Structure formats: structure tokens, C-alpha cells
Amino acid sequence: MMLSIGDLSKRTGVKVPTIRYYEDMGLIAAAERSEGNQRRYQRKDLERLAFIRHARDLGLEIAAIRELISLGQHPEQPCADADRIAADHLAAVREKIAKLQRLEQELERIVSHCDGGHSIEECYVIRSLSDHGLCEHDH
After folding, report:
1. What angle do CA 84, 88, 93 make, to 5 degrees?
2. Which CATH number, 3.40.50.300, 1.10.1660.10, 3.30.9.10, 3.90.580.10, labels domain 5-72?
3. In what helix (H) or strand (E) does residue 20 lie, and over which residues does it extend?
4. Where are the alpha helices (DSSP H) in 36-139?
5. HSE (CB half, 13 Å, CA atoms) of 123?
6. What is the pLDDT of residues 47-80, one digit of tens each?
7. Most buried residue among 42, 79, 90, 93 by CB atoms closer than 10 A?
């Protein structure tokens, strides 16, 4: 099965320029070329691109994906490194969630102090954004 770059894009939902970028970065192998110099991809390229897409959807950085791809080329080795990559990413996601929750609480507090019935000069939202000291927590 040989796929054009457009077919590969449609099947994976990855845009053509992004496929070229991944190819340039070495995340997917350089495509074979047809006699008309069009890129032709194989099933393994489709599978690799689907793997990359899913990893990106989960928020993994390119460096982590590159390492996971490298690990995948040695199926006989233990999966401790793959587990570490996933655990590190989970910790980073949890840290982002905690920060977003603090931001939510602060914004909720700021909004609750303003009923929209004041002039801009008296607006608590504007004053809070102008003076970090009015915030309850560091964010």
C-alpha cells in the first residue's frame, strides 16, 4: 500500500506541512518518491504518524516523542524508560492543572467583586489587573 502525502494527511488528520516538518525532523522516514517526484508513504509511515499524532494530542513534547520512537525500535528492552516519560508528563500536566485551578480561583474572586454597575474608574477588575497586590495568591 502506497499513500500520497494528501492521503496520509486525510487518514491521520495531520496537515501536510506538519508531515513535511516531521519528515525533516526525522520523526518519520523520508518518503520514497514516485517517478513524478511525489512523496509515497507506506503503512509503517501511517502507523508512525498516527503514533506521533496521538502523542501530540496527549501533549507530549517532540523530544519525548523522539525518545519513545527510539525505545519502540528495541521491543525486547524493558519499558521503564517509556514509563518514566509518561510519568514525567503526567506530573507536568498535574502541575499545569493546579496552576490553572489557582488562576480560576483568583479570576472568580476578582469577578465576584464587580457587578458591572460601576464606572471603569471604580471597576474592581481593572484595579485588580493594575495592582498585583490586590490578588490573594501568587499566580
Report:
1. 145
2. 1.10.1660.10
3. helix 16-25
4. 43-57, 62-72, 80-112, 124-130
5. 10
6. 999 999 999 999 999 999 999 999 999 989 999 9
7. 42
Can you give the pTM of this predicted structure?
0.77
Q: CB of 105 within 8 A of CB of 135?
A: no
Which residues contact residue 3 at a Cβ distance below 8 angstroms, ignoring those fewer than 6 apart?
11, 40, 41, 42, 45, 46
CA-to-CA distance for 60 and 54, rounded, in angstroms?
9
- The length of the chain, given as a count of residues: 139
> Would you tell me how many other CB atoms lie within 10 Å of the CB of residue 15?
10
Q: Interior CA angle at 86 toward 85 and 92, to 5°?
A: 90
